[in-house]
Amino acid sequence: MAERLFSKILVPVDFSPCSEEAFRIALSFAKLFQAEVLLLHVVDTKSLHALNRLGLALPSDAAMQKKRLHHHARLNARQLLAWEEAKGVSIRRLLADGCPFEEIARTARVEGVDLVVMGSYGGALGGVDKIFFGSTAEKVVRTAGCPVLTVPLPSKRSRARVNKTI
Q1: How far are the Cα atoms of 18, 29, 64, 160, 161 from residue 104, in angstroms, in the given order?
Q2: What confidence tens digit (pLDDT) does each residue in 30-59 have?
Q3: Alpha carbon of 49 to those of 30, 67, 153: distances in Å?
Q4: What is the pTM of this model?
Q5: How many angstroms separate the CA atoms of 102 and 88, rounded?
Q6: Which residues contact 21 (CB under 8 A, 6 or more apart)?
Q7: Alpha carbon of 163 to those of 19, 106, 118: distances in Å?
Q8: What angle do helix axes 62-81 and 45-53 make, rounded to 10 degrees?
Q9: Which residues are CB-neighbours of 34 under 8 A, at least 6 positions away?
Q10: Which pLDDT tens digit goes with each residue over 52-83?
């Protein structure tokens, strides 16, 4: 058995294919080091407020929107927890509201996380904000205070190799 290098692994997910791959990698590390996995989803309230300011959503619906986003996050997290690879791994689900990179870094510090495993890019399309301020993964690398492993979406070729070995 490997030395217990990591005892708590944080996996922020936005339920994109890239974050699902990060979850898969985190599960492998958790099994290897007998670590606990913290599965975190952050509801990006900054985006919600922007939609309200632009008139694309009614401010009076903000509470309902947030409730709906929390519900979808819980459903998507349940699907991840049902994966065969997740069986036998200690996993704790966390849900936060706010700016994703800030909440990820805060959770890493508050929870005493040894490793963050996250997708190198998420489901949201990049724009001017990403050009000037960087991706969520880049910001987490700079602010988490612990090692951060960024996981790219695997190519079809490497996915085929993984499927053959399973």
Answers
A1: 16, 19, 24, 31, 31
A2: 999 999 999 999 998 876 666 666 666 666
A3: 36, 14, 30
A4: 0.80
A5: 30
A6: 119, 151, 152, 153, 154
A7: 18, 35, 21
A8: 150
A9: 1, 4, 7
A10: 666 666 666 777 888 888 999 999 999 999 99
CA dihedral 142, 128, 102, 79 (to 10 degrees): -110
Return the SS3 of 41.
Answer: strand
Angle 88-93-97 from CA coordinates, rounded to 5°: 165
- What is the distance between the alpha carbons of residues 87 and 31, in angstroms, rounded to a whole number? 10
Identify which of 159, 117, 96 has the alpha carbon closest to the alpha carbon of residue 23.
Answer: 117
CB of 14 within 8 A of CB of 115?
no
Q: Buried b / exposed e across 50-87, counting CB within 10 Å, b at 16+? A: eebeeeebeeeeeeebeeebeeebeeebeebeeeeebe
For domain 8-165, the CATH class is alpha beta
Question: How many CA atoms, within 13 angstroms, populate the side-chain half-sphere of residue 132?
Answer: 3
Of the candidates 9, 4, 36, which has an alpha carbon nearest to the alpha carbon of residue 108?
A: 9
CA torsion sign for 51, 73, 149, 104 is positive
As a whole number of angstroms, the distance between CA 166 and CA 164 comes to 6
Residue ranges covered by each domain of the chain? 8-165
Give the whole-angstrom CA distance, residue 66 versus residue 98. 11
